[in-house]
Amino acid sequence: MPLPLSATARGPRQHDVYDTLRHAILNGDLRPGEGLSETKLAAQFGVSRTPVRDAVRRLSDDGFLRVIPQVGTFVAPIQLTAVADSQFVRETLECRTIRLAAERLDPTQADALDRHLAAQERAVAANDATAFFTADEAMHADLIRIAGRPAVWNLILDVKAQLDRVRCLSLESADWLAMIFDQHRVIIERTRARDPDGAEAAMRAHLRSVFDAIDRIAATNQEYFEDSPTDPAR
Amino acid sequence: MPLPLSATARGPRQHDVYDTLRHAILNGDLRPGEGLSETKLAAQFGVSRTPVRDAVRRLSDDGFLRVIPQVGTFVAPIQLTAVADSQFVRETLECRTIRLAAERLDPTQADALDRHLAAQERAVAANDATAFFTADEAMHADLIRIAGRPAVWNLILDVKAQLDRVRCLSLESADWLAMIFDQHRVIIERTRARDPDGAEAAMRAHLRSVFDAIDRIAATNQEYFEDSPTDPAR
DNA sequence: GCTTGTACGCTAGTATACAAGTTCGTTGAC
DNA sequence: GTCAACGAACTTGTATACTAGCGTACAAGC
Q1: What nucleotide is nearest B69 when CA is compared to C1'?
Q2: CA B226 to C1' C26, whole Å
Q3: In the 8-state DSSP scheme, what is residue A228?
Q4: Does A98 map to a domain?
Q5: What confidence tens digit (pLDDT) does each residue in A123-171 have?
Q6: Interface test mutation site (partner B, options A92, A153, A158, A159, max chain B beta carbons within 10 A)
Q7: CA-to-CA distance for A94 and A211, rounded, in angstroms?
Q8: CA–CA separation, A121 vs A139, rounded Å?
Q9: Is residue B227 part of a domain?
Q10: Residue A24 belongs to what domain range?
């Protein structure tokens, strides 16, 4: 088990174990099916099993780990049906909120959206995918905030994690970033024009094209997937 | 602390503590603000603190408990903004799925829906609110299954818990059950007629009227609520 | 060679002991 | 009488020991 987790330096605080493991799973450092051991994790993080157990339990609730009593803990396979359901939920919620955002937008908020676009443009020019997706998330979160439902973003983040896990299996090309950026520009433009129908259509097209990319990634990484509707008898 | 939890008989299994506490909170047996103690809970359930801690952590993640380190564990107040957001999410998702259900319904599924209505009608006649809401949930779940997104129901259940928690603060009158039942009949009728627009409108009206009732309950039980947008620094 | 019984090592689940911190009552000095 | 300081009793957080069950490797018997 490679586990290039930096458990070194400063003793991990309360939720460090959770955050580190979650990040490793989302990034693909921990591959689906890979086995973990609470004891070994505790040793690696320099803590006892108790905080490790807390983290493992939460990750299990999130669907990232599968704990089999008396057997072991494993990185959960990616279920294609779960990914599709996540897409459905995200699309449904964000298409609704973008309508509200288009109806409620005020000039100050419009400027904030422009700043997000500018940050994305810089990231595209630098071909910096990490910076791009940081600005991407900030923009989506801001749109939902403008819609008046800031807490809904937390829910989106949860379901989006399933999608990001797939996305992280492949590297984004500069062309792809540019395409996404163009889609973002249309969304913002329609929102600024206070055109709910246009904004919703642009958002739906955007999310669909991201999902299509995810589908292509899945097709070329089938070893990590499990499309069986296995009841995860938690 | 009353806590009429039946910790008697058969040793509690894996998630008994969680299920029991969750049920007690949703039913209002444990009131918002009430304090709990892991030690006392462990004694009441006849187990050690470890499984109790697991349950408490999960309930904390769910937003039902608020754990303050070195101080105590308390039943979380009901946040009106969270309730409103839950309503928004539920309405958005169920209005989308009912459209899909209306488009996809087949005769076998239609019969199942009729059976749900029949069960509800019996419950209304007997003024049995528990039986009514059991059939209610089964029907909503079935509609989402018909829409082809069965897993989405799990998400709805999560957000619905916030709404049910408020609903359980008051008893339903027979009149109110009858009104809800009528709304259900319209939803099913429009779905069977393969009328997505009509079904969605009926579903939205239904969910809104339930939410209005929740708002009225909240107005008369303000002591349990907290509308401050407190950041629940998990 | 194949099957089956068995022992060992691993796992997570649980129980318990200890540590760190907060709250609140009490007691002492002023 | 007032207030401050101390301490007892409580809380959750953490560490560790033990339990029960599963998987596997290995050896004995067919």
Answers
A1: D12
A2: 35
A3: S
A4: yes
A5: 999 999 999 999 999 999 999 999 999 999 999 999 999 898 888 888 7
A6: A92
A7: 14
A8: 13
A9: no
A10: 16-75
